[in-house]
Amino acid sequence: MSLDKKPLPEGFVINEALAEAIRSHLHEGKLSCAAAFAIAKAAGVEPLVVGQTADALQIHLAHCQLGLFGYAAGKGWIGTPLSQATTPLGFKSALLAAAAGSTLSCAEAWKLAEEFNIPKMQVGYLAHQMDIHITPCQLGAF
C-alpha cells in the first residue's frame, strides 16, 4: 500500500518536533526501524506515533529489525549466516506457543528475542521458516 493511501487516526496532527527528529535520522530518504524506536524513546511516545508521523510525511521505513522489509536483497537475513545459527533449546516451542495460530506480533517477537538472548532478526528468520507471519508491526508498517 502506498503511503498516501495509508489511513491515519482521525484528527491525527503531525507533531513538528517529532517530524524534525524523523527528518534528522533519514538515510537515503528512509527511516530505519532502529532510528524510529530511538526517536520514540527520546520523545516519550509510542513507536506507533513515530510510524504514523513517518507515514504522514510520506517517509518509508527501512531495515526492519526482524528482517522483514527494507533491505536491498528482500528479507534482511538474506546473505547472513542465520541459516547456520544455533537455535536455543526451547525456542521453537516458545515461538509456536506465542504465535496465535500462524501469526505473531512484532512486540511478542521482540520479547522472545530478549528471553532467549538471540538477535531479533533470528526470530524473524525462524518465524519465516516456520511459516509464522509477524503482524502487527509496532510502527504500523503492516
Tell me what you see in this structure:
There is one protein chain. By secondary structure, the chain is mainly alpha-helical. It has six helices and four strands. The protein has helices at residues 16-24, 33-43, 47-56, 91-98, 106-115, 120-129, and strands at residues 31-32, 61-62, 103-104, 133-134. The strands form two sheets. The chain has a two-stranded parallel ribbon with strand order 1-2. Strands 3-4 form a two-stranded parallel ribbon. Helix 2 (33-43) packs across helix 3 and helix 5 (106-115) crosses helix 6 (120-129). The longest helix is centred in the first third of the chain and has 11 residues, at 33-43. It starts with 15 loop residues before the first helix and ends in an 8-residue tail after the last strand.
Briefly say what this structure is.
Helix content is 41%, strand content 6%. The protein has 142 residues and is mainly alpha-helical. It starts with 15 loop residues before the first helix and ends in an 8-residue tail after the last strand.
Task: Name some characteristics of this structure.
two-stranded parallel sheet; mainly alpha; 4 strands; two-stranded parallel ribbon; 142 residues
List the helices and strands and how they pair.
Blueprint: H1 16-24, E1 31-32, H2 33-43, H3 47-56, E2 61-62, H4 91-98, E3 103-104, H5 106-115, H6 120-129, E4 133-134
Parallel strand pairs: 1-2, 3-4
Helix pairs in contact: 2-3, 5-6
